[in-house]
Design a protein that fits this description.
Elements lengths: L6 E13 L2 E13 L3 E4 L7 H10 L7 E5 L5 H4 L2 H8 L2 E5 L3 H5 L1 H7 L5 H4 L8 E3 L4 E5 L2 E7 L8 E5 L4 E3 L16 H13 L5 E3 L6 E2 L1 H25 L9 H10 L8 H8 L4
Parallel strand pairs: 3-4, 4-5, 5-6, 10-11
Antiparallel strand pairs: 1-2, 2-3, 7-8, 8-9, 9-10, 11-12
Helix pairs in contact: 7-8, 8-9
GO molecular function: hydrolase activity
Protein name: MBL fold metallo-hydrolase
Pfam family, one: Lactamase_B
Length: 280
Amino acid sequence: MKLAEKIHLLRLDFQINLNPHKKIDRFVNCIIVFGEKITLIDTGTKGCFRHIFNYIRENGRDISDIETVILSHSHPDHIGSAAEIKNIAGCRILAHEGEKSWIENIDIQNRERPVPGFFELVDQSVKIDAFLEHNREIKADKNITMKIIHSPGHSRGSVNILFPEDRILFTADSIPVKNDIPNYDNFNDMVNSLNSIRTSRDYEILLTSWTPAITGPKDIERFLDEGESYLKALDETVKSIYVGEESEPLEFCRKAILKMGLPDFHVNPIVDRAFRGHRI
């Protein structure tokens, strides 16, 4: 999907194997900037590089034109093809320093954040060539600037990216999608990052990792309202349930998910860790 003359949004489909008998369909967005050189923002899961490469060729460009890959954060659906793309295209990888250990050593990430089917989503670590800093501006082309906005919450080193000339803001996973899996490292930081997105007046098109492009002030406001309301509902539910001691592992998480009316597969250590952060 062409968002601006040289800025495209590409949907990358994948599956998560919850167990041998159940899979869920997911997708994640990748941004491709067709400047004199090509910049990619996020890379999808393992094997998604093929879809990215095909799209680049369909637009009359060559894989060797890829110069930079920016990783919004370290989770497998965003870094899964980064190593393959770097190996083939010889490009550089940029990410926030807060994501370094989980990008450069996926064994650590799998140990600390055991996503179901982790190594089916990402199977290679990749070295970061330079770190992204808050308010840093990167020129993707003559009239295309990418402003880095450190937006912790979903993860410690999550970044949003503003394209000021085209008034486009990419928020990655900084805005919770209503009724989607509660997945964040720090609840309070998540709230603060959401508030920063809401109060910004620098964009007219809002991009996330999990939705089509959102345009128009009313639609953007509605989406932000839904995310904020979801966080508030989660906070109220978690604080009412996570009291005292559990009689069995994930007991509180299970009760919270049931009360919120969310799917059973949301009951897992990653969500439990997110919920426990509400009590800090």
